[in-house]
Design brief:
The chain is α/β, with parallel strands linked by helices. It is 44% helix and 13% strand.
Length: 299
């Protein structure tokens, strides 16, 4: 890979999911390195899965992860990039996502002993703790710190507060990753990022994957962000959130507003299809399945 600095923000929803969620060898290697460095687990047999967990009934809440994967013998992980701290929903949503991963582990007739590790790994572009610690790993413990299970720890909610890397000289693998995620695309940080890229293979692969995003895709993504910002003005911070339909639900908007968000989503999908974008790209950008896309196109 050449060392031309790539003007891509890895914190953006589309680029984060493209680099670490694309089902291709280079991207899986980058994802493997990222997971290992922030969880401490050795990762083998990594499989990137559909980010949607289907509801069991019409009354259940839909769930779309940024990146959903399984590794080893069935350990499951959800990786999320969060740009804005919506304090009233951040913690409950993280717990909800964890509960959905746990629930998806077993099916009818499975023994409870088959339950595997479930991890929610959150990269945050804001601070939620007042300490200087970059990474927190939360589990189930009593007030004295005794773990719920002495034999096996089943759940992890891991937070990575990217702003805390600002005054840190990145030395550890976690610090190196945090620095790249926070500042990739900032040309004033290019020299250090290129240095980190050459020091750590996983970062090299991630940035190589980022450089493979075509200029056409970037231009279309930027157009889409501008259109979304126009449509979302007054409801969300402009151009930041990309889960239009589902974030609207989480914000607790009235049913009429939800329907409006759906109409906006459908309009964006039709616009992308009319411009010749592939179904795979549309699915990835808007987090919808083939059936939903066809229903919009055929209206």
């Amino acid at each position: 890979m050449n060392n031309n600095f790539c003007s891509i923000d890895l914190k953006e929803d589309y680029t984060f999911k493209y680099v670490f969620g694309k089902d291709a060898p280079l991207n899986r290697c980058a994802l493997k390195s990222l997971i290992e460095d922030f969880t401490g687990f050795t990762v083998n047999n990594l499989h990137v899965l559909s980010p949607e967990l289907k509801c069991g009934s019409a009354f259940e809440k839909n769930t779309f992860f940024d990146i959903y994967a399984k590794f080893n013998e069935g350990d499951a992980i959800d990786l999320e990039m969060q740009m804005i701290n919506k304090k009233d929903i951040f913690h409950p949503r993280s717990l909800f996502y964890l509960s959905k991963i746990l629930n998806a582990q077993l099916t009818s007739g499975d023994d409870y002993s088959n339950l595997k590790k479930c991890i929610v790994l959150l990269f945050l572009n804001f601070k939620i703790h007042y300490d200087k610690k970059l990474v927190h790993d939360f589990g189930i413990f009593d007030e004295d710190g005794t773990p719920y299970s002495e034999e096996k720890r089943y759940v992890h909610i891991i937070t990575v507060e990217l702003p805390k890397i600002a005054k840190v000289n990145p030395i550890t693998d976690q610090e190196k990753w945090a620095y790249v995620l926070k500042y990739f695309g900032d040309k004033t940080k290019a020299d250090l990022i290129n240095q980190l890229m050459n020091e750590k293979e996983g970062i090299y692969m991630a940035l190589d994957a980022a450089n493979k995003i075509s200029q056409n895709e970037l231009e279309w993504f930027n157009e889409w962000k501008k259109e979304q910002a126009r449509l979302e003005e007054g409801s969300f911070e402009a151009g930041v959130k990309t889960k239009i339909q589902y974030e609207a639900r989480e914000e607790g908007l009235e049913e009429g507003h939800k329907e409006g968000r759906k109409e906006q989503l459908d309009s964006l999908i039709r616009n992308a299809y009319t411009k010749g974008k592939s179904l795979e790209l549309i699915k990835e950008m808007f987090e919808v399945d083939d059936e939903y896309i066809q229903s919009v196109i055929n209206k």
